[in-house]
């Protein structure tokens, strides 16, 4: 017993250290096509509130959508526009985000999760990640919204003050995942081809004037899927 006790004590200390170890992770880059999608794998060693937000809109980036999934690919939440904007501290830096950035603050249990980043209106097809996204078969779908660039377009979108938004956006994105044990870019499962081809014909839009706003920052338990679009 005397020889086993120090080992057991060390194991308990390591477990406790893992449970409290949380950090912030910042990612950035550029899409190549309108329908690009990125997946970010992250984990929690203990229950806590995780914040995920983008900060690229104010710099001219495209209108992002964040979708949160559990480790099995079941949707927990989907967020288009977080709120009217503000700033959030990540790794000691204040990042400003705009009203068309995505913002999620959600209570999660310990475990593994995925966050996917897409461009509006490339929402998930269903609450199963494997089913893919609405625009998977259309790499230049925002051309229908209207802008001289022909991609990363916002068309006739207006902000909360009723002012028109510059229709030409850039391919830039910035994503922040706060208060997690680790986070990294991962791969996204490819959806069934036939389903994508049929869905792509159902979601043809001519503009952005009537875009729906989402509710302010989400706060939901991991067990309950929530759509915030």
UniProtKB/TrEMBL annotation:
Signal peptide boundaries: 1-21
Top-level lineage group: Bacteria
Gene3D superfamilies xrefs: 2.60.120.380
Entry keyword set: Signal
Protein name: DVUA0089 family protein
Organism, scientific name: Methylomonas fluvii
Lineage summary: Bacteria, Pseudomonadati, Pseudomonadota, Gammaproteobacteria, Methylococcales
């Amino acid at each position: 017993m005397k020889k086993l006790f120090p080992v057991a004590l060390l194991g308990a200390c390591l477990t406790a250290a893992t449970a409290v170890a949380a950090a912030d992770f910042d990612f950035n880059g550029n899409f190549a096509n309108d329908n690009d999608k990125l997946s970010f794998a992250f984990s929690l060693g203990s229950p806590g509130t995780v914040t995920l937000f983008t900060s690229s809109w104010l710099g001219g980036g495209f209108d992002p959508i964040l979708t949160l999934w559990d480790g099995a690919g079941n949707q927990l939440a989907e967020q288009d526009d977080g709120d009217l904007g503000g700033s959030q501290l990540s790794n000691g830096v204040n990042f400003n985000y705009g009203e068309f950035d995505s913002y999620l603050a959600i209570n999660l249990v310990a475990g593994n999760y995925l966050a996917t980043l897409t461009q509006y209106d490339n929402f998930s097809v269903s609450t199963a990640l494997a089913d893919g996204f609405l625009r998977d078969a259309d790499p230049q779908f925002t051309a229908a919204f209207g802008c001289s660039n022909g991609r990363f377009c916002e068309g006739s979108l207006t902000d909360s003050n009723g002012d028109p938004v510059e229709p030409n956006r850039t391919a830039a994105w910035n994503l922040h995942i706060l208060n997690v044990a680790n986070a990294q870019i991962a791969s996204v499962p490819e959806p069934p081809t036939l389903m994508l081809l049929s869905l792509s014909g159902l979601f043809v839009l001519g503009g952005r004037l009537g875009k729906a706003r989402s509710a302010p920052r989400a706060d939901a338990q991991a067990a309950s899927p929530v759509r915030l679009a």
